[in-house]
Structure formats: C-alpha cells, structure tokens
## 1
Amino acid sequence: MASRAAEQREEARQSAARLEAEGVRNVALTWVDNAGVARVKTVPAQRLPEAAARGVGMSPVFDVFTSDDAITESDHLGGPDGDLRLFPALDRLTALAGQPGWAWAPADRYDQLGAPHPACQRQFARRMTERAAEAGLELRMGFETEWIVTRAPEGHHPAAADAYETLDYPCAGPAYGMTRVVELSDYLRDVTEALTVQGIEVLQLHPEYAPGQFEVTTAPGDPVRAADDVVLVRETVRAISARHGLRASFAPSFVAGQVGNGCHLHLGLYRDGTSLHRTPEAAWGLAPDAVSFLGGVLNALPALLAIGCPSPASYLRLQPSRWAGVYQCWGVENREAALRLITGAPDDPDGGHAEVKTFDAAANPYLAVGAVIAAGLHGIECATQLPEPQTGDPGVLGVRERARRGIVRLPATLTEATDRLEKSAPLYEAMGGVLHGAVLAVRRAEEAHFAGSEAEDIAAATRWRW
Ligand code: GLU
Ligand code: MG
C-alpha cells in the first residue's frame, strides 16, 4: 500500500508539473452519484500528488443525494458521519480545452483504510468488465451524447429552474438541417476541437430532431473508458456552450411533450480480438454468446430502466414513435426497438454491434455499463435465446397485434422500473446490497419528490440538472 501510494504520488508529481507548465492551476475530480449528477472536488494542481497518494475527502452521504440536492437514506448510507477518499484516475487526467487553467480526472472512491467503497459506481463498472474478461469476453462501448442548446438568459442564475423562463434557441433551422450547422458553425467547430485536443475521437456531429438539439458520437472503448468519456464530453459541451453565451441541457425531457435527449449505449462483443457480431453462417452474424448476452440484456430491460432511465423526467421522454425504444423488443436496424442490432457495412470488421436506445443522460454511466454487462453475462449463464426480431414501429400496431408478437411495453413509470430493479436477483448480486440499496433509495425519493407533479413542472425542475 505504501509503495503504491509513493508510485501514485510520483506519477502525479510528473503529471502536475507537465500540466502546470501548460498553465493548469486546478484539477477537478469528478464522480457521478446515483441520481446521475457529476459531483466534484477540486484541488490546486500542486496538490495533485497528495491527492493521488492519499485521496481527497468526500462524504458517503452523496450516495443518497437526489437530483434536486435533497438527501435521503438507505439501510447502509445516509447521515453526516464517515468519510471517503476520492482517488484521481491519473491515466485519464486531461487538460480542459473549454476551461483554460483547469484539468479533470474521474475518481474512484475508497474508505479511509484503502478498501474499495462498496457503492463506488466506477469500480462496479470495472468489476463487471473484469467479470466479462474472466468469461473471455471483451466489450467495446460508447455513449451517444444528445443535448439541447439555448441562449443563456441574462440576469438569470444559470442553475435556476424557472418554469416560466423563455427558451431562446440560438438556431432556427430544421431537424437534421444544414441550416442549423451554418447558424452555429463557430460553436460546433469549437466543440469538435475541444473534444479532439482532449483525446476524444469524434465520429459524428449532427443536428437532431428537437429545436436546438444536437448529437455527438465518439469512438468506443472499454466500458469504464466509455463512461469516463461521456462525463468528459458532457462537461466539455457545457463549457464550450458557456463560452459562446449558450446553455446546454442533457435532460431527458427538456420540454414536456417534445422529443427528448437520449444517451444511447452502444456495445460490441469480442472474444480473442474477434467480433462476435460477424460470425459467418450464423443468423444475424451473432455468435451464440452474443445471442445470449443480448438476450440477457433484453430480458433485464425493465429492471435496467431504473438504472438507465432514473428520473421521473425520463418517463416523459419515453413515448412511442420517438426513437426512444419504449417496447421490450429487438430489431435489426430498427430505431423503435429498445435493443437495436446494428449490422454496419459487411466489410467493416467493427461495424456490427448493438445499441440500447432507451437510456438517457440522467443515468450514471458507470452504473449503466456495469448493469448492462451483468445482465448480459447472466444471459450467457442461462443460455438465453433471442426471440424473433421486430420490424417497424411497435407503437403503431394495435394492442392485439403487439400481444400476438409478444411485445411488451417497458415500464412507463419510475416506480414500475424501480420495483423491477428491486426484484432483480442478478442485478442485486452484481451490484451488492450497499449499491443496490442506495440506488433504490434514491429512486424512491425522486418518485416521492415529484409525486402528483405536472409533466411541465417535472421537465422545468430537471431541465438543468445533468
Ligand atoms: N432523441 C431521441 C431519444 O430520445 C433519439 C434520436 C436518435 O435515434 O438518435 O432518444
Ligand atoms: Mg440521436
């Protein structure tokens, strides 16, 4: 332990010297709570070696914080006692292009004696990645980031959730329209440039459906990296927006009744470096383990919604026929299926993968990747098979036709999803009682907070929380 601390201190000393030479003064250490909010402690760059060796203190009570900063409690967590240590992941230390003078690193949480905190979401994601590796599976994952941009109103506190605020869109062009790119070309160039200099490989950037909505997709990586990346992407978009006098919202439902922001999770399965989505002769190219993994994810979706769609606002977004994937079915390149199989061009060895469409950016991305892996591995253990894929939009079928095809609506409320997570034995086993219990407690508190609220009020109250 002592020599590990000394090594970390030395590595951090070298990194801090390099960053300070580039003008970095502060380092933000983030971790994401169970309500999906990135919380932070910052240290001056010269304190980074100390932070790397001993960690930075932060209360365990944040595990039961809700998205409105209220505090609930679980069987294991809550109250003012105790302390945890945030340890920066030095391999992700990044100077922030949108915040000159700042650097960022995601943090793992340990107790004061150096034991992993049982509710540390980032370590949960890593444990599940390792569990997959023990089964010979490698996962490459990536999140899509969708956001809606408006002009920051003058004289308003940027965090104010004002139901009556006027939303002033800086672009008027149509969905997917080049006009929007022309209107915001400096801003979009700065987003791309900031991500690129931070080591994030941008694959695509485009205007989305809703007013002021855009999407950026980034290269896949190992699951923990994918979760780190989406945090960095989001904070970068936020920072570049602010530098342009704009405000970015990643909320699931920006305006109730309109298309919302998704945060779809893409996943590709590999064994010994070979894609399990490109098996010659196999139906859909899927190797047996890929079928069972995806079957496990499909079966677990109702419970997974409490992880991937964690806010009452998430359920405002989850409407049929909005490409959000609200039916428990899968389909080949079907954008209305909750689980979309992407085949890609036949000569693209990495083109084949799958996409969980239902998730949104209120989700803690570390919990999302960890829980999806746990569900997939459970599918492999049970040799789960996939039902027939669905074509077309299940939302336009009659109730009877959906029933005939065996298509079930995913939970339409947070309460229903949380009930399913509570009863999920594989997710309980994978997460452990402390983390599972904390997530349930936060979900129940969010439900209670918004019970009886109108859709517009939920959207307004959560608009700027993620
Ligand atoms: N904005 C849609 C959603 O709520 C997704 C659109 C797309 O398929 O990219 O998830
Ligand atoms: Mg999109």
## 2
Amino acid sequence: MLIVQKYGGTSLANAARIHSAARRVTGLAQQGAHVIVVVSAQGDTTDELITKAEFVNLRGSAREMDMCLCVGEQLSAALMAMAIGALGFPAVSLTGWQAGLQTDSVHGNARITGLGNDRIRKELDKGNIVVVTGFQGINQNNDITTLGRGGSDTTAVALAAFLQADLCQIFTDVDGVYDRDPRVYPGATRFGRLPYDKMLRLIEGGAQVLHDRSVEMARDHQIPIEVLSSFTGAPGTIVGP
Ligand code: ASP
Ligand code: MG
C-alpha cells in the first residue's frame, strides 16, 4: 500500500502542528503502508519570501524568484523529516530536483512533465518515509522552477500518478470541499464526493481548496483525491471519477 499525504501551510504552521502531522504519518507507517509526504511552506512563508525579494528588486527575474520561493518548502521538508525521526521512524527529505520532478521552463508557473529518477522508490524500499518539497521541480537546464501558487497539491497528485499510489490525501484547514468558502459562509454545504469536472468548475469560480492543475492531473490519471482536515482527520471529500 502506497499513500501520498500532502500537508498545507496552515497544517505545518508551528512545531506542534508539524508534530501532529508527523504522528498521523507515522501512524500509517506503523500499519505497514509506504508513505510519501508532500509539504507546503509553513504559514505565510511564501508571501514573506515574495516581500523580501521585492524589497531588493521589484522586478527580479522569474528564475531568481523561483530560486527564492523554493526554500519555504525545503525548510518544511527538513522539519517534517526531523519530526518523524523524533518519533523513532526513519525518514528522508528530498527537494523537487532530488526527487526527479521534471518540469517545463515556465518559471513561476511550471508544469510537471515527468519523474526523472527512481530516488523516491529507492528510499521507500530502504524503509524510509519520504518527505518531498511541494511546489517545485527542475527544468531541462537543471534550474529550479516553481509550479504556481498552491502548486504543492499538484506535486502530490503527480507523485501519486507516477508511483501508482493507492491513495492521495490532501490535508488542509477545512474538512473537505464546500459549495462556498466555509471560512466566510457558515451555511456552506460540504460535498462527500465530487466529480473532477465539478471541482474544476468550483476552482474556476474562485475556490482555492485545490490547485487547478492537481485536479486536471488527477482526472487525466484517474487518481482519486481526498481533501480532509489535518486538525480532525475525519473523512473528507473525495474528488474522483
Ligand atoms: N507555498 C506555495 C504557496 O504558498 C505552494 C503551496 O502552498 O502549495 O503558494
Ligand atoms: Mg492550497
């Protein structure tokens, strides 16, 4: 059984939340599953990195912006691997390029094109829980690219597709997909299941719970995605065929 779990920025915002995510991950490993963990940058880190860059140069090149923005996820990945280690489980963190995530060259909005090595598979075979930075890869020149805001979801779905995972879970700060933003509209209704096309229409209408390309990729590879809360762990919304 291979499971990909992605944790968003709110779910990793501080040490306590990282530990709580790590406990969820190791719980699965304890049951015998192979686990790949995809992480976003903590809290508002990506926004802060953009601000830092803009203080230096309002029009820094897209290549250097990617070099700057990718560090948020790298920090999260290292911290997550350490938290898993603290629970007594072997873990290794990998950047997008170490994991072989190849993309096109559109800096700031790159598309994943393939998985160029078998590093993740090898680390899983060694018994490691593999933590991969979301939101980034490398292009043909070995330059770092990022996938566009919210792109860590797409990293998770891409890995689930390339490595034929049994399940792809996206842990976030809401307990599923709603017809309206539940943080703004208390009367919003939650979906138990949702077809890919309907999810894409919600995203077109402004829903931010999933990155659009993650849903397209899931549809193209027929991967079901479960969107659920990292705070409760209760069953969420299945976005699927
Ligand atoms: N950290 C990136 C962002 O804030 C990617 C992600 O979280 O999915 O957009
Ligand atoms: Mg997101």
## 3
Amino acid sequence: MNAKHGQTTLSRKTAYSYAQIALGTLNNLKSPERESSTGLPSLIIRDAHIWTKNATTRGSILVERGRIQKIARRIIERADEEILARRLLVLPGLIDGHVHLRDMKLSYKEDFTTGTTAAAAGGFTSVIDMPNSLPPTDSAERLVERTKRASGKILVNVGFHAAALDDYDKVRAMKAAGAFSMKLYLPSPIAPLDVNDDKVVVRVLSAAKRTPLLLTVHAEDRTKLPRTREIETFAELVRLRRGNAETSAVRRILRLQRRIGCRVHFCHVSLRSTLSAISSRPSSCLSSEVTPHHTLLSEDHVRRLGWKAWMVPPLRSPKDTRQLFRAMKMGIPTIMATDHAPHTIKEKARPPRKSSPGIPGLETALPLMLTMVNKGRLSLGRLVSLLSTNPAKLFDLRSKGILENGADGDLVLVDLKKRGRIDPEKFFSKAHYSPFEGWKTEGAVHTTVVNGLIVYREGEILGKPGDGKVLKSGGHG
Ligand code: NCD
Ligand code: ZN
C-alpha cells in the first residue's frame, strides 16, 4: 500500500499565510506527529460549497475533537490543519452498508487496512462488513473476535453484520456484541439453516423481531438458480440466473414479514419490479438497496467483459438497467451500496461455473455517480440521500449522514469538475479489476475526513490504521 503515515500538521501558534494553506502547498510542509498532547488536531475547511440538508451554501466548517463544532459563513479562529476549498463541495461522508472486507483467512483477497483504504479513497467514511468471511461472523464470539482484529487496522469507521440464525438467545448476543443486522443469504446460508423451509425462515424473522435486529436479505431463491450443467460463457451463466429467482425470493420474504413484522432490508435489488413490490407495501419496516453496477451496467457488458462483470445477483438486460436507474433517480430504493466484493484475478478468470462472483466497488461508486450528476441524470440531493443520509438513518448512525453542529467529523470534499478515467491498476483495494475500467468520469474525491482526521487527499493516503473506529449498533455513531 502506498500509504503515507505522516500527516501535515500546523500548530495553532504557527504563523502562516493563506498561500501556505492553499490547496497543494500543504503537501510540502513538514510532517510532524499528528496527534499533539492536546489530543486530536482541529481542522477548518474554508470557503467551500457545503451540502447542508437540501442545498449547497458557501461557508466554512470547523471540526474539533472529531466533531463538527461550527458551520458559518466566516470562521475567524485558526486550526491545526486548514484547507482552502474554494472550488470544492463538502458532503457528509459516504456510508456503505454492504461491503466484504474479508481479512482473517481471506486476507489474500482484501484485509481491513486495504479495504478501508479503498473506502477512504472512494469518499466512504463508514462501511458495514458482511458476515461471509472466513471464519464467518456467525456468533457473538466471532463478532467480538472480528471487531478486535479490525480495531487498530482500519482507516475509516467499520461496523459488522452477522449471519442469520434462528435461535433468539444467539441473535440477542450478536446484537449485544454490536451487530448492525443479521444477514439471510438465501442462495446458500452462512450458518447452516434450511432456508427453503418457511418454518425456519419464520423462526429467523421472529428472532429478528423479538431482539429487535434488522434482517438484511440476499434475495435469490436457490431452487430457481441454474442446475449444474456445462455453461460455456458468462453471458449464458448470467442469462440462466434469471430475475425470477429474485422476484420469488422477495415475494416470499415479504409474505412472511407481513406475518411477523420485523425490519427487513433487501440487499442489491436488481430489478425495478422487485423494488416496486417492496416499496408498494406501506411499511416503515421495509427498505431496499441498489448498487452502482446494477444501475449502470447490463448483460451487454458481461458479453464483452466476461468475469470482470460477474457478480450476484447478475447484471440484467439493458432495459432492466434503464428502469432501475430511473427508479433510483426517483428515490424508490432506500440506499445505494457498493457490495464491494474483492476476489483475486485467479479466482475470477476461470470457466464461468468456477469463477467467484463479485467486484470491487468502493473506489468507483462516487466518481461514477458524480458523473451522473454532471450529466444531469441524477440530482446531487438524491446522491447524498442514497449514499449518506439514508444509510445513516437505516443503520441508526445518529450523528452521521448530515453536516451540522455536533455531527461526527466525517466529510468528503469533492471536486465536481475534475475529469478522470477509472483505472483499476491504481485501486488501493487488492482487487485490481473493474467492469468500469476505462470509463471517463467527471467529479472526483478530493479529500476524505474521518473522525476529524484527513485520511485521503488527492490520490494520497494520509491516514493511518487506527484512524477509523469500530461502530456498534445502538452506539449511535
Ligand atoms: C459476494 C461475495 O463475494 O462475498 N459476491 C457477490 O457477487 N455479490 C457475495 C454476495 O454479496 O452475495
Ligand atoms: Zn449478496
């Protein structure tokens, strides 16, 4: 990792001019230890465009002791670190509710440090990790172990989902250990459960209701997935893994949820019809998620790119993609998540049946969506709600997802006009491939601030492992 652990720091008493603190020149200053005896350094972002609630205003932000202390037109105080941000837009730090950080026995694919470095570079200040790790996060003990391993290794804040179980006491223990949800992975459950049996699923839903704990669902019905037979191309594999596996799984979970009444979140929904089925039920207990890949790519890309565009649920027809994008633009899904799912190229570049599904997504999501904003295809407000405000509400991260006094110092500064090209070679993730390779982008992450600390700036990692905190559900961010 080409991370730089030094951090540009200016002492409050240091005399310096605006020229010195102007963007770019900070890099040339000496880099003493960042943490002074007084604790966390203070930070002022000056003269920026700031996204506050529903619009941008011009002003400055003071972050002290890890929290936003002031947002004002002018701030006369000085801070340890200052950023003159005239051309930049400040958004609340992005929150990704669906990432696979791997680590432990899967560290060869990704580890806590590389995954959260990728998050920092992508403008994500908090991410929530999925439980299909090795060992899987399928008990309170395993969750505690994973939490311990993560702390000290992460550059952004990290929370954890746990595996779905049908035993109430165990579910309650996982919640007490800080789990943000339990994940029901219908294609092949993480903990051994006969998920085809409604009685088993009802027990899972009842445990979620009683605890209470959010249930996240990978909704693909395994009985509707293609049987083992030779499949020659990825295009064929994708066509055979049909949308009806998703439609039928969503319908089934909705039917059971209506009986039990627990909170259910549907992960990576790939079809407009499924989104509509979820959102047409007027229940505050239901939520849904879309990904950048399902809203921007289709089977056409699978035909051209093969394994680079292989993930589950698979990409759909160009018409489905257009419809999903339109639904997202209208705000029908609750959140957007990347489903960052890194594998090695060796594991992916195999015959279709043997190839691991999943693509890295943390470093491409924001530039791709900012490009949509610049093209007039998505409003900035929708982008912020899908990627920050709504995930903060869904996962009850109360002092995140908003820029206001007292909120956590989690921010992303974006340069809306900066043009770039998606280059997987430059990813901080261990997974150096992407179906978006070569895409031209307009809009880039300039600086990422986590807990008041600058962790990323203009292609450089300035944070260090330990700058991120472990998040626990009910810990209120
Ligand atoms: C995910 C993975 O690799 O862990 N893969 C994927 O294609 N989405 C698993 C998952 O989220 O279903
Ligand atoms: Zn999934």
